[in-house]
Design a protein that fits this description.
With about 300 residues, the protein is of the alpha/beta class. Helices cover about 45% and strands about 10% of the residues. It has a single domain (about 10-280), classed as Rossmann fold. The protein is globular, with a radius of gyration of 18 Å.
């Protein structure tokens, strides 16, 4: 007999990178399940507008996931307005791509700050809230690129491998404390972040709503490894038992080695321009909270198959 699905009605869920893409789609899906949702993003105006458009009492708050104080303030504000946190979805992420030796040190640092440090900060801050209550669900958005390596995205792949390993280790630490951890690993998602990427043979980009529905299912079932689509799971798992030359041949046959290395830069121009602004410091950071005052309380992630 199938296990009963866990109800999500009334659950308090916080989502980083919630202003667009996977984050926004996930917020909409959870609202449909009756959850109480807060979305956070570094783009204050956009996150507030998105929250208004989503409706159903959704709140939109500013958050810079690379700053622990900002992340802490975000979660504190969520709890003060919606109640104790039940779920944190670490979704904020970026994916500037290009040949490894042409990647600037600033680009690598920004990737690590957002894609990894942001997840570390969020995971710690969520667990501080979950452990005393012996309940809670941590959802970390990784990527199919967290299970393999793809030319054109070396540092991005490194951050996503790190998120997978981090999440697996956290799960081992808290599995007997009533806390669930889920690792979401999509292929290329049809968002701005995934725009202009080359197509892998046999894998078409999935929609943000597909990832959102997979996250809802993970929250309802407690699933740990969340592959999007599910069919990519056996492929990624099998590569760890096959000879290297066979893995390379399969990747080349499916054109997985071209997904990040051969993008359509014209189709990707808007995202690349925004990433250049972010990396150069042009994307406005949030002010650091001031002590003894009410403090001011990122983006989404896709992945490629072969990865918001």
């Amino acid at each position: 007999m199938a296990k009963a699905l866990r109800p999500l009605t009334g659950k308090v869920v916080a989502i980083t990178g919630g202003a667009r893409g996977i984050g926004r789609a996930t917020a909409a899906a959870l609202i449909g399940q009756g959850a109480r949702v807060a979305i956070g993003d570094i783009d204050t105006a956009l996150v507030e507008r998105t929250a208004q458009e989503l409706g159903s009492g959704t709140i939109g708050l500013p958050v810079d996931v690379t700053q622990r104080e900002s992340f802490s303030t975000f979660l504190t504000d969520v709890e003060s307005r919606l109640g104790p946190l039940d779920v944190l979805i670490n979704n904020a992420g970026i994916m500037p791509i290009g040949p490894f030796l042409e990647e600037s040190d600033a680009t690598a640092a920004r990737l690590i700050d957002i894609n990894l440090h942001g997840v570390i900060f969020g995971s710690k801050l969520a667990l501080e809230r979950f452990l005393p209550r012996r309940s809670g669900h941590l959802v970390n958005i990784a990527s199919s690129a967290g299970k393999s390596g793809f030319p054109g995205g070396a540092t991005y792949c490194a951050t996503k491998h790190a998120v997978v390993g981090l999440s697996e280790a956290i799960r081992q630490e808290v599995k007997d404390a009533g806390i669930d951890v889920s690792i979401v690993m999509p292929v290329v998602v049809n968002t701005e972040l995934g725009s202009g990427l080359a197509k892998a043979r046999g894998f078409k980009p999935i929609e943000p709503e597909d990832v959102a529905n997979a996250i809802v299912e993970a929250l309802q079932t407690g699933r740990v490894d969340v592959y999007c689509p599910k069919s990519v799971g056996p492929i990624l798992r099998s590569q760890h038992v096959m000879p290297r030359r066979v893995v390379d041949a399969i990747g080349h046959f499916f054109k997985g080695d071209q997904v990040l290395s051969n993008p359509d830069h014209a189709a990707r121009a808007a995202y690349e321009a925004r990433m250049a602004e972010t990396i150069s410091g042009g994307e406005k950071s949030l002010p650091a909270p001031v002590a003894d005052e009410t403090p001011a309380a990122s983006e989404e992630e896709p992945a490629v198959p072969v990865s918001k």
